[in-house]
Amino acid sequence: MKIGIVGGTGDIGEGIAMRLSSNHDVVIGSREEDKAVESSEVCYATVTKLGLPCSVSGYSNQEAVDRSDIVILAIPFKHVEPTLASLHGFEKKLVISPVNPMEKRDFFVFTPLLKDRQRSLSEDCSPGNKALFGIQYRGSKQVEGAHRTARPCCTGLWR
Ligand SMILES: NC(=O)c1ccc[n+]([C@@H]2O[C@H](COP(=O)([O-])OP(=O)(O)OC[C@H]3O[C@@H](n4cnc5c(N)ncnc54)[C@H](OP(=O)(O)O)[C@@H]3O)[C@@H](O)[C@H]2O)c1
After folding, report:
1. How far is the CA of 127 from the centre of ligand 1 (A)?
2. Which domains, and CATH codes, for the chain?
């Protein structure tokens, strides 16, 4: 499968890229393409060091959407709405979001949306298609040695 990661340069995005890129073609997306290329190089080096094959590349967030069948959102919660508004082409794609409605202040604060807003957000990113919200994942620093055992855990299918 071709899997694009919007905001794939962060800890969670890189971790997902490292875990999926030996079995799938992963496109790391970023607001800055150079940053995505750099992350793809880190991912490639980490995965091949484990003796595993790796297919990963780095592009803009829009290219990551365009080049993929599955799109994973790996950006902080407060940036999801503006980022989705700036991207297009989610039709016929599965959109997966591990995003937690939390904000890092002095400590993590739970900042949920009202249910109606959640629904409209899922429709924004995946009009008429399936969107999977609420999976649990680990960051890139936990990849080494754990590559084969770490698995995403689904806790909710929105629609
Ligand atoms: N489900 C779970 O188990 C789990 C566990 C931990 C975290 N999470 C969630 O995973 C998500 C990512 O976490 P993280 O720690 O990887 O986040 P992060 O490192 O803070 O940010 C990830 C990426 O978001 C992009 N970004 C930052 N500001 C942005 C903006 N204003 N507009 C658009 N993009 C922006 C950046 O990419 P560029 O600068 O390259 O564009 C950044 O590398 C969060 O929503 C978090 O709640 C889930």
Report:
1. 23
2. 2-154 (3.40.50.720)
Ligand 1 contacts CB of residue 7 (under 6 A): yes
pLDDT tier, 24 (very low <50, low <70, confident <90, very high otherwise): very high
For ligand 1, say whether the CB of 76 is within 6 Å of any of its atoms: yes
Tell me the per-residue pLDDT of 52-99, one tens digit each, with 9 for 90 and over.
Answer: 999 999 999 999 999 999 999 999 988 988 999 999 998 888 888 888
> Which amino acid, one-letter code, is at 40?
S
Residue 51 scores a pLDDT above 60: yes
- The ligand 1 atom at the shortest distance from the C-alpha of residue 61 is 41
> What token pair was written down for 93?
């794609």
> From the CB of 74, is ligand 1 less than 6 Å away?
yes
Convert the pLDDT of each residue in 127-148 to its tens digit.
Answer: 555 565 555 555 556 555 544 3
